[in-house]
């Protein structure tokens, strides 16, 4: 359970500014306030890592750059259509980055080394989820009002990632245990 919580911490950290944006926007209906707070949190996270001199992973850098760039564009245009289509661009870029072999290694505890090949496969599954989310977002952006779109896409974004994370974790633990038992000669 400790390893699950450790891995989940990285995921929540990468999604923190998005989660904050969602909560503020849905509670206040103030787009600019929600975007500004999401940007501030993303910048604060990177600053915290730089001050503490802790490593900043590729996905975390990508996340903060996208939050700041898309947030700035949203603040400048205040255009609901741009805001609604923006996640498709982000999902597409993240999906492309996730096609890089081994990107997920940052999220693995040291004891997961024997199942790193499974993590690599799941890295590609994550990329597929990003591309599917981009397509879904485009379809919903042109068929829903902004408030409904925000609720649906935010829920989809969060729940689909949590579901895939849990599936990946259970799969890797199961395969890891089977491999360890096979290596020790114990019955699986």
Radius of gyration: 18 Å
List the helices and strands in order: HHHHHH
* Relative strand content: under 5%
Q: Tell me the structural class.
A: mainly alpha
Give the biggest beta sheet. Answer: none
Question: What share of residues is helical?
Answer: over 70%
Overall pLDDT confidence: 85
The dominant shape is: globular
Low-confidence stretches: none
Distance between the termini: 21 Å
Number of helices: 6
Question: What oligomerization state is this entry in?
Answer: single chain
According to DSSP, the number of beta strands is 0
What would you say this structure looks like, in words?
The chain has six helices and no strands. The chain is about 80% helix and about 0% strand. Helix 1 (about 1-30) packs antiparallel against helix 6 (about 145-185) and helix 2 packs antiparallel against helix 3 (about 60-75). By secondary structure, it is an all-alpha fold. It has helices at about 1-30, 30-50, 60-75, 80-100, 115-140, 145-185. The radius of gyration is 18 Å and the shape is globular. The longest helix has about 40 residues, at about 145-185.
Produce the secondary structure layout.
Layout: H1 2-28, H2 31-52, H3 58-77, H4 80-98, H5 116-141, H6 146-184
Helix pairs in contact: 1-2, 1-3, 1-6, 2-3, 3-4, 4-5, 5-6
Summarize the structure.
With 188 residues, the chain is mainly α.
Keywords:
globular; 0% strand; 81% helix; mainly alpha; 188 residues
């Amino acid at each position: 359970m400790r390893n699950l919580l450790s891995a989940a911490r990285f995921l929540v950290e990468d999604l923190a500014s998005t989660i904050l944006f969602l909560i503020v926007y849905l509670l206040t209906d103030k787009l600019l306030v929600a975007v500004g707070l999401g940007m501030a949190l993303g910048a604060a996270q990177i600053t915290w890592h730089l001050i503490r001199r802790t490593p900043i992973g590729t996905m975390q850098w990508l996340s903060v750059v996208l939050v700041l760039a898309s947030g700035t564009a949203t603040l400048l245009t205040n255009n609901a259509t741009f805001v609604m289509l923006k996640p498709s661009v982000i999902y597409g870029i993240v999906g492309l980055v996730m096609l890089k072999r081994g990107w997920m290694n940052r999220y693995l505890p040291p004891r997961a080394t024997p199942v790193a090949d499974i993590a690599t496969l799941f890295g590609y599954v994550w990329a597929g989820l990003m591309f599917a989310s981009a397509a879904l977002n485009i379809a919903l952006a042109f068929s829903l009002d902004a408030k409904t779109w925000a609720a649906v896409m935010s829920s989809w974004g969060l729940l689909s990632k949590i579901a895939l994370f849990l599936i990946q974790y259970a799969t890797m633990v199961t395969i890891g245990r089977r491999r360890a038992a096979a290596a020790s000669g114990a019955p699986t």
